[in-house]
Design brief:
The chain is mainly alpha-helical. The protein has one domain. The chain has 3 helices and no strands.
Length: 118
């Protein structure tokens, strides 16, 4: 014969199990968030370092290009002006294709990082 305490104990056990499940899910979400945030921050750091190193390299490259152009045009000021025009054209091209070169890859990366299940 069953006692009346058995349903109460089952309900208490069910409540404890549900509470533990919710706590574990909350912990899992926190761990997953920290993992994705770590990937995002490390990727940003790598990109920043690459940009800084590329800027330094391009600075010296364009400086040497200006001196090389000076031999062809005969004027150092004109050669630096030509390099500046090249810079401006590069900036205009980057601005014109910013969606294709910057925005779309960034959106794809963030979507893949945060919205796909592992």
């Amino acid at each position: 014969m069953k006692t009346t305490q058995e349903p109460v104990e089952n309900f208490q056990q069910l409540y404890a199990d549900i509470k533990k499940y919710v706590e574990l899910q909350a912990d899992y979400i926190k761990v997953e968030f920290v993992e994705k945030l770590t990937i995002l921050i490390s990727t940003l750091l790598i990109i920043i370092l690459v940009i800084i190193l590329a800027m330094a390299g391009l600075f010296y490259l364009f400086f040497s290009m200006a001196y090389a152009i000076e031999l062809m045009v005969g004027s150092l000021a004109l050669s630096f002006a030509l390099v500046a025009v090249f810079y401006v054209l590069l900036i205009i091209a980057l601005f014109a294709w910013r969606k294709k070169l910057v925005i779309n890859p960034l959106v794809r990366f963030l979507t893949k990082l945060f919205l796909t299940k592992n």
